[in-house]
Amino acid sequence: MRSVNKMDFLRFWRRGRVAEGFALIASLMAVWILTALGVLVFTVSTRDVRVSTRVVGEKKAFASAEAGIHRLTMTFDPFNMSASTFTNVPVYSTGDPDSRYSIDTPTRPTSGPASVPLPGYAIGGGQMWGQDRYVARVTGTNTRYASNVVIDVGIGFGPVEITTTYR
């Protein structure tokens, strides 16, 4: 039987401890790498969900604004501008109560001509005919996705006589 001296015991003990320390560090590094990879996958997947949610909300808001533009073209009356003003109107109250539109009061444009001539639309006698220009702002919103779309709409009303001469 071989006797173990103190130096052999210390060498053995240190070698075992170094190997145990390396295994601990290697396992911690593996856990950290796997954790970082998991966080990356989670972040990327939730970002994709947020982007697709935003796109769905913007599409619903845009569809609401289109419904508002349709309503504006159906109800536009230049002699009663307030009749074309609507606020927070649901597009489809039973199917999608969160999609709504609003139409601001149409006004005359602040830039450009007030009337635009209609080429080839002359009756004779020196008269010129055209369309009067108006602008309105239509806003489509979807409260479920907290999205909104604002569209500035140009409206032409005519034919109207645009000559400067009076009879």
Summed up:
The chain has 167 residues and is an alpha+beta fold.
Q: Would you mind describing this structure in some detail?
A:
- This protein is α+β, with helices and mostly antiparallel strands.
- It has one domain.
- About 40% of the residues lie in helices and about 30% in strands.
- The protein contains one helix and five strands.
- It has one helix at about 5-75; strands spanning about 85-90, 95-105, 115, 130-140, 145-160.
- Strands 1, 2, 3, 4 and 5 form a five-stranded antiparallel sheet that branches.
- Strand 4 and strand 5 (about 145-160) form a beta hairpin.
- The termini are far apart.
Topology at a glance:
Blueprint: H1 6-75, E1 86-92, E2 96-103, E3 115-117, E4 129-142, E5 147-161
Antiparallel strand pairs: 1-2, 2-4, 3-4, 4-5
Could you list some keywords that capture this structure?
167 residues; alpha+beta; 1 helix
Whole-angstrom Rg: 36 Å
Determine the strand fraction and express it as a percent band: 25-35%
> Number of helix segments?
1
Overall pLDDT metric: 85
Distance between the termini: 136 Å
Low-confidence stretches: none
Structural class: alpha+beta
| SSE succession | HEEEEE
